[in-house]
Design a protein that fits this description.
This protein has helices spanning 40-50, 80-89; strands at residues 3-8, 18-20, 28-30, 57-62, 94-100, 106-112, 125-128. By secondary structure, it is of the alpha/beta class.
Length: 136
């Protein structure tokens, strides 16, 4: 089995987060429809890495969450154009996303053949979400 792990720098080139209710206790991040996360140089590098033949398992690690959409903090869903681009770029059959979530627990998700899906979330399943949920 050929396994490839990619560690993304999701903050250095990232555009500013946009906020609803800034300066309050109800401050939440909102989508930056044209915002970028990786920058052109990192996207080019990532495309080369993902296009390598014979990858059986691709592990993508990011400092911010790639899959969750529901919370109001920093996440790839705040940059929907970049998130969609990342999903479309994936050509491996099996992809794991790992990152530290806002509770400092490891989150692992798997999605398969996202390029064949009209709605990516249809195939996303958490493998292990927090210390109280031991699904595998």
């Amino acid at each position: 089995m050929n396994i490839k792990m990619i560690l993304l720098d999701a903050r250095y080139f990232r555009d500013e987060l946009l906020w609803e209710n800034p300066g309050t206790n109800n401050k939440t991040a909102k989508p930056n429809l044209n915002g970028e996360i990786l920058g052109e140089e990192q996207w080019q590098w990532l495309e080369q890495q993902v296009e390598e033949p014979n990858i059986d398992l691709l592990i993508i690690a990011s400092g911010i969450q790639i899959l969750p959409e529901e919370h109001g903090f920093e996440k790839w869903a705040n940059f929907p154009k970049e998130r969609t681009k990342l999903f479309q770029l994936t050509n491996a059959k099996l992809v794991f996303n790992c990152n530290n979530n806002i509770y400092y627990c490891l989150s692992l998700y798997v999605w398969e053949d996202v390029r064949q899906q009209s709605k990516y979330e249809k195939k996303i399943e958490p493998l292990w979400k927090d210390g109280q949920d031991q699904r595998l």
